[in-house]
Amino acid sequence: MQKIDTWYKAQGYCPVEEYEIASYLLFEAGVATLEELDPVEDGRTDFCFYTGDKEERDRIVAEFPQYHFEVTEEEAKDWDKWWRDRAQPVSVSPHLVVRPPWVEYTPEDPQTVVLELEAKTAFGTGEHDTTSSCAHLMEGIDFNGKTVLDIGTGTGILAMFARRKGAKLAVGTEIDPLTIPCITENFERNGFDLSECVLGFLDSFKDGVKFDVLLCNMIRSELWPMRDDMEDLLAPGGQIIISGQLLTEKDYILKWFEEAGFTVQKERISGEWWSVLARS
Fold this sequence. Notes:
Layout: E1 6-15, H1 19-29, E2 35-37, E3 44-51, H2 54-63, E4 70-75, H3 79-86, E5 90-93, E6 96-99, E7 113-116, H4 129-138, E8 147-151, H5 157-164, E9 169-174, H6 180-189, E10 197-199, E11 211-217, H7 220-223, H8 227-233, E12 234-246, H9 250-260, E13 263-270, E14 273-279
Parallel strand pairs: 6-7, 8-9, 8-11, 9-10, 11-12
Antiparallel strand pairs: 1-3, 1-4, 2-3, 5-6, 12-14, 13-14
């Protein structure tokens, strides 16, 4: 593949009601990706496209004078290197920091857990409010000697945090086989021999299996069908953290907890997201 040193940009606009047909025509003309921009003024949609071929850009611009294109040039960046150079450790919760493998970090507080990981094909490096909120609520749990089930473990960040906080077992579940190599790599990178991750749904566990703590950072439509299995897997007196819920939908979870006999211990709001810690 030929290396592109310069990107040729064209930025234009049209009335809001014409954007759909404009995007169709531009794609038909050869535009690969059209980026919708914040409008400069009401009633119009601003957009732009890039190409590595100056003649192609100029041809498309000439074909659509009604979109008032302005043309510029930008030096092509190595975006992967640019991102890596600017990556910084993420303070997920008071005692959890996640750092990229190529960034060194030593915490001031020796009690702080530092995990080294990359997301790759999995979700959860701590930047998102829902992952952070789950970690914040985990800070209030005594994990020493306990068993943990992290449903939809993603990168394994929460399961590894539980292990570092003293859990004797932290099992993660995933249904996407593409995440498994990422999870395995992250556990090995952080000094764990095995990821203890299960590929499959909650019915993969034998009858009678119980966990002291359940973690579930999923949107409601994904976790809702698993409620009965989650109740069965939580040990009597165990604790459960639910994250990934929109604040506007928290009443669904609270109603479920009431019906299941769970007692809410703590709630946390971060932006539009709501998380909760409860005990069975």
